[in-house]
Design goal:
The chain is built from 11 helices and 51 strands. The strands form 9 sheets. The protein has an 18-stranded antiparallel sheet that branches. It has a 6-stranded mixed sheet with strand order 4-5-3-2-1-31. It has about 950 residues and is mainly beta.
């Protein structure tokens, strides 16, 4: 019942000391969404009015997918499926349907508890359809597998491993595409491919998604697609999924694995004959992290490369001085702007982030700040932001490009309808001109010669190559759009040579993105493309150094690095020319969404509360006897409004059953930026609380509480709470009974921009300041104030090493002031857990954190265990606990190891010596302390 006790304490005035470890970033509700509901045959589609057109398109896609999947799964879903659409990833990150934070790379999810599918629209109709299909495969697979197990009376309902779950979602939602090909090529050629036997080691990674999809592509080709459905229908038969595969395919898992691996080698190893890894055919400039959006800049005294990179966990803007190499021929990147530590530069959107520089050394870049993206102008001369632009109607901004005179900025942005369109910002008059306004995905625009035209990438292609991303031109004098390329491949990252004589772009015609030149005939008309690079894996972006030399951002060995390449040194025999043979279809493609769905209805969203979770528990112990209780949580479809109901009985004899019911009823609302909660509680029974007494006592307490939380930003917040409670305690051996009507008020400030590795923070700052006042307003039996200051700073000294520091002071002062507790692995190591108690407490720690063992594998005959990222620590702790007069300073010093298991639990083992007798001597022997929990 410890969980139940904790839930009560979190809402009572007595919870001050329980709050001292509460840090964390904030999920901020910047927008108040006016939810509407569109009911189709099988779906309840939730959206907000300005997003209605794309929501209707998504609803049509969902119904088409339902008809397709009911055949593939040989299964139908009888309940209505809730689909929740957001018009951007920024809005999607505000969702309360799940409690945690949503990273940049998450394109949607299926939430199992209520069966909700939650998806953002990111500007592309094609990608929107893919994600809808992907998540609905999850819906069908879960229902299918549970139905199979239920039919065969399985007592242990479970799902297949994640690699299969995500693999089939990709396999039945999209075709094998350029990104998938890039990932698998890289994995095979760089020996980071994991066969089925070890695929659990990449659980949850994008590589796992694509390996799972690729394995099912192999099963389809080698054994027949019907075997995939049979794997789910045979799932109930075996405990291990490998046995399911063996039974279904009729071969041993070793044989299947060998055949799959050999199949991949046959496919990818021959590529090495005519294609090259980036580091072989180009000069590698960087070696660590993710490096994107290169922009070359040169003056009489400077030759530099500016870019966005993530080397240490924070995406930031870097600079490489190309004239300054070290003795090994390497460059030392310099941070120009540190990102993701403060509100103004809250988030760079890797890998979509882009920058540009004009002749006056003004850097244009985009970061998320608050409810939308902000376009910043930064002076590299004065090293300050000279201007920022944020628009209420534009949520996402991408790819800023200066005009040749530096007076205008061209970029693409997504509005509240979800449209991804082109815009020009006049930097002198601050006028914003919109060039396109439709649901086509227009992006990555660049200026043409003399700024009279624009070249951009769009999926508005129609006809034989419908929805492919081709290059288009926009004539600014005529406001007209024309095809520049017309092929069945996708284009990205167009760039003119410095003199605007030639145009190059990335193209995936050969299976992955390489650099192609857009060719012109004698009249200056573009008539084909010529392939210049033949990299095995993709080029993401590039910048011209001169008319022939370029710096590319290439994907290799699961990282993005920069490479210097001379296009003139590529032999003509390697250049492949592809002519535009088909005439482009002039009109754009259209989607008639609602006409395909049949009867639909729509209306405003009305709250209906359904179960989140419920559990009961019965325990018996020799001290408190037999007692039991239950917990119930309900929330609305959006997860904004939640009710908690807790019931618990502390009776030790049958006659006390009715009088010893304890309860907590609370409401938590997260719909608006200010989160609030309130509730009522009652507690009656025996207690042992070492913050109050050294022995057991009997207490009856009931009252109510209210709390508010206002996030200032992702990194900081203000909290306040008030509670009123009647409390009556009986006389105990060591404690004098009393009655009180306690009113407690607290106000807190919390800041957290820390960066974590698997075992705890390694960079950033965490701060908590709290003031509180508690008073017995009727009997005057209690009156004390509280003050807490907890400051933690992490100094990064290497990529995976840091010095962690902590200084904290806790004070309760006054009549019946509660005691703080210390001792144990989270504060004063070596001292017995909670053995140090006092109304005042100070703590300090210094700890060196460093990598110890990168990977430890233990292989038994029947299974293998992996322990990644075993870390070491050297620490020094000091502190003191007292009531009226300060008595003794305590401390400890030692070393330890810690590692994370199952991506959620951290095991820590410390060895050291206590510093005793007011810091005058070390203990004679060593202490050994084991703990489950993160580093401070």
């Amino acid at each position: 019942m410890k969980k139940c006790y904790l839930i009560i304490f979190l809402f009572l005035f007595e919870s001050i000391s329980a709050q001292i470890f509460f840090f964390g970033r904030n999920k901020v509700q910047y927008d108040d969404f006016d939810w509407q509901i569109l009911k189709t045959e099988h779906f309840d589609v939730y959206y907000y009015p300005e997003f209605e057109e794309i929501a209707e398109i998504g609803a049509a896609f969902a119904e088409e997918t339902y008809d397709d999947l009911k055949v593939k799964f040989n299964h139908i879903i009888t309940r209505r499926i809730p689909l929740i659409f957001y018009n951007s990833h920024i809005h999607f990150q505000q969702t309360n349907t799940i409690p945690g934070f949503i990273p940049e790379g998450v394109g949607g999810f299926f939430e199992f508890m209520k069966g909700r599918v939650v998806i953002p629209y990111i500007g592309s109709i094609k990608k929107f359809r893919h994600v809808i299909n992907h998540e609905l495969v999850h819906v069908f697979m879960r229902s299918k597998v549970y139905n199979v197990q239920r039919d065969h009376r399985s007592l242990d309902p479970k799902l297949p491993p994640l690699w299969f779950t995500e693999g089939i979602a990709e396999f039945w939602s999209t075709k094998w595409d350029t990104k998938a090909e890039m990932i698998m090529r890289d994995a095979m050629i760089n020996n980071i491919f994991f066969p089925l036997k070890y695929i659990y080691q990449i659980n949850g990674t994008f590589l796992m998604y694509k390996e799972g999809q690729n394995f099912l592509e192999f099963v389809k080709e080698e054994y027949g697609e019907e075997k995939i459905l049979l794997m789910m229908e045979n799932f109930w038969r075996f405990h291990k999924f490998s046995e399911v595969i063996e039974f279904t395919l009729g071969e041993s898992i070793t044989k299947i694995d060998e055949k799959w691996t050999f199949h991949l080698k046959q496919k990818y190893y021959p590529l090495m004959k005519n294609k090259y890894p980036h580091h072989i055919s180009a000069n590698k400039l960087t070696t660590k992290g993710f490096n994107l959006s290169p922009r070359y800049y040169k003056t009489a005294s400077e030759e530099s490369l500016y870019y966005i990179g993530n080397v240490d966990g924070y995406a930031s803007i870097y600079k490489i001085d190309l004239l300054d190499k070290d003795e090994d021929g390497k460059y030392d990147p310099e941070i120009i702007l540190r990102g993701e530590k403060e509100t103004v530069f809250e988030k760079f959107h890797l890998p979509d982030a882009s920058i540009d520089i004009n002749d006056e050394k003004i850097l244009a870049f985009v970061t998320k700040s608050g409810s939308s993206d902000v376009l910043h102008l930064y002076s590299l001369v004065s090293e300050e932001i000279v201007n920022s632009f944020q628009y209420n109607n534009l949520i996402n901004i991408r790819s800023p490009k200066f005009s040749s005179d530096g007076k205008s900025l061209l970029f693409n942005a997504s509005d509240r309808k979800g449209y991804s369109d082109l815009f020009i910002l006049d930097l002198e008059k601050f006028n914003l001109q919109r060039l396109t306004n439709d649901y086509f995905d227009d992006k990555e625009a660049i200026w043409g010669k003399n700024d009279q035209s624009i070249v951009f990438v769009s999926d508005r292609t129609n006809g034989q190559f419908s929805q492919k991303y081709n290059l288009f031109t926009y004539d600014l004098s005529k406001n007209s759009i024309d095809y520049l390329t017309y092929t069945g491949a996708d284009f990205s990252s167009p760039h003119f040579t410095p003199d605007f004589s030639e145009l190059y772009a990335n193209c995936d015609y050969d299976g992955t993105f390489n650099i192609w030149k857009i060719e012109k005939d004698d009249l200056g008309n573009y008539n084909g493309i010529t392939q210049y690079t033949h990299f095995v894996t993709s080029v993401f972006d590039f910048t011209f150094v001169d008319s022939s030399k370029i710096i590319t951002s290439g994907f290799e060995n699961f990282s993005f690095q920069f490479y210097l390449l001379d296009l003139e040194n590529i032999p003509d025999t390697n250049k492949h020319y592809l002519a535009f043979k088909q005439e482009p279809v002039k009109h754009n493609w259209e989607i008639n969404s609602l006409a395909k769905m049949g009867p639909v209805s729509s209306g405003s969203y009305g709250k209906s509360y359904t179960l989140d979770y419920a559990y009961t528990q019965l325990i018996t112990d020799p001290l408190y006897g037999t007692r039991g209780g239950g917990m119930l949580a309900l929330s609305d479809m959006m997860g904004d409004d939640q009710f908690l109901f807790f019931l618990y009985n502390t009776a030790q004899i049958s006659s006390d059953v009715m009088s010893h019911f304890n309860f907590l009823v609370s409401r938590i609302n997260r719909k608006h930026r200010i989160n609030y909660s309130y509730g009522l509680f009652r507690y009656i029974g025996d207690r042992y609380d070492i913050r109050v007494s050294n022995s057991r006592y009997y207490e009856e307490s009931y009252g109510g509480f209210v709390s508010l939380l206002y996030p200032l930003s992702t990194f900081s917040r203000i909290e306040t709470g008030m509670s009123m409670a009647y409390s009556e305690r009986d006389v105990d051996y060591n404690y004098e009974g009393r009655k009180a009507v306690l009113m407690s008020n607290t106000l807190s400030y919390v800041h957290d921009n820390s960066l974590w590795l698997g075992t705890g923070p390694i960079d950033g700052t965490r701060i908590r300041l709290l003031v509180g006042y508690t008073k017995d307003i009727q009997y005057n039996n209690a009156q004390y104030y509280s003050f807490i200051a907890d400051y933690r700073k992490y100094f990064r000294i290497a990529e995976r090493s840091a010095i962690a520091t902590r200084a904290a002071l806790f004070i309760n002062e006054g009549k019946e002031a509660r005691r703080f507790i210390a001792g144990g692995s989270w504060d004063l190591r070596g001292w017995r857990r909670w053995s140090l108690r006092g109304e005042k407490l100070w703590l300090s720690s210094v700890e060196l954190r460093f990598p110890l063992i990168d990977q430890l594998q233990i292989k038994f005959p029947w299974l293998g265990l992996g322990f990644p990222g075993i870390r070491g620590a050297l620490y020094f702790d000091a502190g003191g606990v007292w009531n009226d007069e300060y008595e003794e300073t305590l401390g400890s010093v030692g070393m330890g190891i810690r590692f994370s298991i199952f991506r959620g639990f951290v095991l820590r083992y410390d060895i050291g010596k206590k510093i005793e007798d007011n810091f005058s001597k070390f203990q004679n022997s060593l202490f050994y302390q084991f703990f489950i929990g993160w580093d401070f």
